[in-house]
Amino acid sequence: MFKQLGMVVVCLLGFMLAGCGKSSGNVNGNWTATLLSPPGATPVFAFATTFTQGSGGMLGFTNFTFTTAGTCFATGPFSETGSVSLSGNYNGNASGSFAMTITTMFPATNNMLTLMGNVNGNTITGTWTLTGGTGCSGNGNFTAIRA
């Protein structure tokens, strides 16, 4: 129940972020992300994807691939959702809020990875939280870079 509630909260947050002001600039393109976990800032997950910013700040994802997945995301399929609320210029120098959720789609236990952060040009930084099955919990910081 808490996982479903968390997913609803993330989706609602995404809709609220999407409705905040008019978006300028964009995050369209190929991105790679590295998710680190304290205390030693060890890389836990890494992925590559292509973002396509839609109307209202909603994000579309293509070519999503974990390059470092661990056991929590060893096999797909996955569901990716996200949103941005940006300001900036149309030369791609955007800044604003970012939210993304990656969820496993197998029927037993869904693992959910939530990223919340800020866009600054070609970089997104923020925090991540993982909830799910046994051994699939944690948090840390992430950095995503537009290729």
The helix/strand class is mainly beta
Integer-rounded radius of gyration: 15 Å
Q: H/E series, N to C?
A: HEEEEEEEE
Helical content (DSSP H or I, runs of 4+):
10-25%
Residue ranges: pLDDT <50 for 5 or more in a row?
1-23
Round the mean pLDDT to the nearest integer and report it: 81
Give the strand order of the largest sheet, numbering strands 1, 2, ... along the chain: 3-2-1-8-7-6-5-4
Query: What is the CA–CA distance across the termini?
Result: 38 Å
Query: What gross morphology would you assign?
Result: globular
Number of strands: 8
**Strand content range:** over 45%
Number of helices: 1
Write a structural description.
The structure is a single chain. It is built from one helix and eight strands, in the order αββββββββ. Residues 1-23 have low confidence and may be disordered. It has an eight-stranded antiparallel β-sheet, covered by helices on one side. It is mainly β and 147 residues long.
